[in-house]
Amino acid sequence: MNLPPKVTERAFQRLAQINAGKEPVPLRVAVAGGGCSGFQYDIRLDRPEGDDLVIEGEGQAVVVDPVSLPYLAGAIIDFTDELIGARFVIENPNATSSCGCGTSFSI
């Protein structure tokens, strides 16, 4: 059985900041075809649907659809705030290569 993705405390904290003062909307992490390496991440605020995996923490939630789940098995969803910018990042053990932008990968 594949391990579900994990979400860091830092990612949940950033999501809580984004949702501050309003009803929390989960962060959806999905994998779609495209990008310069074959697959790309689609990260956006979105409500859960049907069979989505819901990962909860810090009063927040991250959702992953069943089609994306195998591509994200064992991945770590984090948030980074660096000189080049602040963004949610994915450390994916399934990716055999990725592009410089970090949003496109191949398996």
From TrEMBL:
Gene3D superfamilies per UniProt: HesB-like domain (2.60.300.12)
InterPro entries linked to this entry: ATAP (IPR016092), ATAP_core_dom (IPR000361), FeS_cluster_insertion_CS (IPR017870), HesB-like_dom_sf (IPR035903)
Superkingdom of the source species: Bacteria
Domain Core: 6-102
PANTHER family the record matches: IRON-SULFUR CLUSTER ASSEMBLY 2 HOMOLOG, MITOCHONDRIAL (PTHR43011)
Protein name: HesB/IscA family protein
Source organism per UniProt: Paracoccus rhizosphaerae
Lineage start: Bacteria, Pseudomonadati, Pseudomonadota, Alphaproteobacteria, Rhodobacterales
